[in-house]
Write a structure and sequence with these properties.
Helix 1 links the parallel strand 2 and strand 3. It is built from 7 helices and 19 strands. It is an alpha+beta fold and about 300 residues long. It has an 8-stranded mixed β-sheet, covered by helices on one side. A 4-stranded antiparallel β-sheet has the order 8-18-10-16. The protein has a 3-stranded antiparallel β-sheet with strand order 12-11-15.
Amino acid sequence: MTKLPEITKTFAPYGAEVRGVDFSKPSPEVTATLKTMLAQHHVLVSRGHPTPNDDDISNFFEGFGELSERTAEVQAHYRRLSKLVPEYLENGANKVGTRFMLSNVEEDGKKLGGLGNRELQWHNDQADLPRLKTISCLEAIDFEAGAGNTFYCDMYAALETMPADLRKQLDGIFGLHDSKRYKSNDGATHDEAPSAVHPVALAHPETGRKCLYVNESFTSGIKGMSAEQSAKLLEKLYAFAYRPEFIYEHQWETGDIVIWDNVGLQHMRNALDPTKRRTMRVFQGVSEALSMPGALAA
């Protein structure tokens, strides 16, 4: 009989610690259990498990859907990114694997990963691509206490509690997303930026639950609106959404694997303390084609 993961602790305002996840032994029962937990708690923190290797994590997430790493869009995206920031991919430029590293650590003059100590504004992973990345996953490989937490924002709750007059403005409109504002560690811009158009009130492709799908990092405007109109509406949406009651702050421990709903949740981090080591392993997660009719249903 398959031993199922169990929730051992819940966080405020959402999120849960899960024990008993063996990433080397995927099963339909474990997948179904975690999907239910994820829909309820949005963020799952796995502790007390062996460190999975690439094959383990790929096999594990295959039960959740198509792996992002295997889609043409994501492969092309990270080839472009590896040219911009060569140390971003653990496996080297132009080679996309299951994982890549984020780190502010250098050893023997070599950076262990990308992004360094820079601040990352609120975003959904890969919002600038046409396919939705539905599940994201991050592991703390080497995390020194105080090195920098990750913040999550519940965009389901933001949309569902929004004043009616503001919510009504979102019906049938689309956000324009690109990564042109992404900069490398030396300040160079990403000229070969991909782009995508997504409903501002977007329905999760599996659950159908709607969330607010615009973010500080990738959303460049609203389709059909002037730059000024777009900026005013986005400013109102961000002011309402990025509020403390919608935010969970994850305090990392080395070994943590955090899985989250990347459709309904955004995440960010502040600039890191350069004196504290922080190396994270990013698993590509799961992506899914957006069903436009479902997303636009009233």
